[in-house]
Write the structure tokens for this entry.
Amino acid sequence: MSIDEAHNVERDERMTAERAYELFWADLLAASATFRCVGSQCTAPLICACIDKPAQTLRVRPYFRSRRIEDHAAECEVLLGARPSKDGPRTPAADVFELERPADHFNSPVATTPSVATSTRAPAVRAPSGGVRTQASHYYRLSSVVQKFLEHRRDQTLAEATVAIGGETSTYEAVFRNVYRQKVEDVAGVRAIWWGTAYVQRLKKENGYFIRFTRPFRMGEKEAKPTITLGEKLIEAYPVRKLLRARLDKLIADSGGYCVVFVWAKPWTPPADSSEAFVRFYVNNPDHLDVRGPEVLEELKQTSRIVRPAITS
Ligand SMILES: [Zn+2]
């Protein structure tokens, strides 16, 4: 049984498995941290699975689980809530991808009331009568959104499931765009979650990374493979840099840098009358980038390439 939230004893904080994972990789939580069930009258010890795994797949993701069902109190609502509800189908709320973390994100416990973003950025959608609306998930790393994308693709719910990013709500199907054979004139300035196969390598002159997609964008008669540069300064200022470096270094060691890259960005190209032809994605926050091993291609094989309007700005 997968449990979403737990009480962490060391920080005296209720947190999601996602947050526990980030705190671990920011060196703010030990792998041996103690978690307990948040059910009333329940003190069942919980394990945060996969907390120390740098790479995530459909099978490997952080979650809480109890050692034994009997550890829970008899009336533990966490345990009971995990069973099918008698109140009808649960309607998931739109996920929210927060483009900036709160300044104190890694210091203080997260508020237990829904954040402001829930009311101002993600308009509430009424659940069908009798349905129970689940609370929206707020994510700070693109990796979490990609994880949901993979799950919705597997469940064939990409066209219905929605995610709010920067005040705009789109379906997962619309917001994910493959870089493969896109015409630059059609997509210049289109902010989306662009993805495709790529190679990552270390920068020669500083402790950063350079990424080049394997598939080009078409620019009239020319073609250009999009690139991303992650400079040392950008990485060193990033609280979860240890996870970022562990993932990238592992890919370089395991597959010669061959990987699948997802980036929340818009393609940037020089003016049409320029003699140069290139496409860059500028990343000013590593939370907006997710780099995975080539095994994710198996999970992506059936992903639709339907072109729909994405968020423009
Ligand atoms: Zn419990």
User: Anything to note?
Assistant: Residues 1-83 form one domain.
